[in-house]
Amino acid sequence: MSTIFGKIIRREIPADIVYEDDLCLAFRDINPQAPTHVLLIPKKEIPRLADANATDQALLGHLLLAVNRIAEQLGVADAFRLVVNNGAEVGQSVFHLHLHILSGRRFRWPPG
After folding, report:
1. Domains along the chain with CATH numbers
2. Is the peptide bond before 110 cis (omega within 30 degrees of 0)?
3. Which active-site residues does the annotation give?
4. For range 35-55, the mean pLDDT
5. What is the pTM of this model?
């Protein structure tokens, strides 16, 4: 894992970790876009959501259920936004699949 997220998983660089299990890790974003902004990453390196395949189905479901646990732990389970960017054109800057859990302010629709 050559990305910054791989380095966080290996504890080569520090992060404010809020959740971890055997399959994923969640930590506070260093450039938060909301009062609560946590990134959830799988420990398996998948560059983009579009690169996931049928063998990743259980892991992807695990990530979504982990979001619920994290949101509950952070006290935002009643109102949060979940964002997954897929590709540089839509804002993905680290090519290791990650889910943004955002809460604590009003969000507009459509996003962007």
Report:
1. 4-103 (3.30.428.10)
2. yes
3. 98
4. 97
5. 0.94
